Amino acid sequence: MKLFRGIVITCVLLTGCSAQNAATEEGTTSPSSPTAVVASETPSPAVTDEASAPPVKGTDVGTTMNPPASASASKEYMETARLHPTFGFADAEGKHILMTREDDSEMEQMKFLNTAVGNNGQILTLTFEKWQAGSENSNGRESANNFANLQGVVYTVDEGNATPDETYYLADSAEFKLKSLLEIQPTAEGSGQLTADDPLRKSISASKQREIKAVWKLADLPPDRGLYLVQFVRQNKNMLFSLVVEDGGKLKFMDYPAVQEDEYSVWRVDDGGEVTPEMFSLLFAAEITDGLLLGLNWWGAEGINSFFLSQEGDTFKELDIQYGRYTSPL
Predict the structure, then answer these.
(1) Around Cβ 188, how many Cβ atoms within 10 Å?
(2) What is the pLDDT of residues 238-269, one digit of tens each?
(3) Which H/E stretch holds residue 202?
């Protein structure tokens, strides 16, 4: 069976993983999957999957968006050491966010979380509301339609609305450097594919010495950076896609090699050996001392993986701060 491919769903949370995070698509114990190989084309072994659903994009009227980096009064950098595996998702009305937990042993720490960031950099102010015990009516899915039946910590959105069923990163505003956040301009759906004669596409192909199947622009980031999704042509059984940041003509890669063992699942269960721009969305982007920090969602057939990529020179690495929402259709 296949687990999430390319992302390790390590539920090393402040207070432990939710019971739902531990479930895999076939009801086995907590999944493991290989961390994506950075700037390498050495294929990784096939892996298994545990989460997916179509992303919800856009920003609700009345919510607060982070200012462009140029609007910041002073330069700040996100401190990755202060990031924690504290993710949650919104209810159907966008008025509450739930962080699932196995127990309430660290409730006092959870009460300090007063900020949620997600949905292309949307910032929300939160107030701790209660510990929710969950119920026997739960269907095991971490989704808005099962919100009231899951165990965890519930927060109230103070102003505006969260995007219903969207994943958010939860933080203490005293630790989370809001001024480090960058304004994200997501590419309009269906308009970001690069043509075969595009100079950037040719540059990426030359850099990897590999033929490209398709390139899509996912978003623009200041001051003049672009985030791209690239799928390369299969070489025998060796598959590769990359997330690429173009910055002033320089390319920064996060590579996801894999070996295709069957036609149904390569990186994620039932992905058919394909990646598409609809599979990826941004929680937020921030400046760090080495460049960029990207918070991303990766949507698959059975749920959503959320994770961080931290720039190191001309490559990115995945931080050991990740979250998996099991949302397999019933």
Answers:
(1) 9
(2) 999 999 999 999 999 999 999 999 989 999 99
(3) helix 199-208
DSSP-derived letter for residue 296 is E
| Block residue for tokens 């096939």 | 46
Cα–Cα distance, 71 to 222 (Å, whole number): 11
Question: In whole angstroms, how far apart are CA 231 and each of 22, 141, 191, 311, 315?
Answer: 30, 30, 17, 20, 17
Whether 325 and 136 have beta carbons less than 8 Å apart is answered as no
- β-pair type (250-259, 238-247): antiparallel
- Report the candidate in 273, 275, 265 with the shortest Cα–Cα distance to residue 298: 275
> What pTM value is reported for the model?
0.79
Q: Is pLDDT above 70 for 138?
A: yes
What distance in Å separates the CA atoms of residue 270 and residue 81, rounded to the nearest whole number? 35
Digit-coded pLDDT (tens) for 65-81: 444 444 444 689 999 99
Q: What is the DSSP string of 39-87?
A: T---PPPP-------PPP-S--TTPEEPPPGGG-SS-----GGG--S-E
The per-residue DSSP string of 97-138 comes to: EEEE-S--TTHHHHTT--EEEETTTEEEEEEEEEEE---TT-
| Residue 219 exposed, middle or buried by CB count within 10 Å (0-12, 13-18, 19+) | buried
The answer for residues whose C-beta is within 8 angstroms of residue 205's C-beta and 6 or more apart is 211, 212
Cα 323 vs. chain centroid, distance in angstroms?
8
**CA dist list (Å): 71 to 159, 169, 249:** 22, 23, 25
Token digits of residue 130: 């209660």
Task: Tell how strand 122-132 and strand 250-259 pair up.
Answer: unpaired
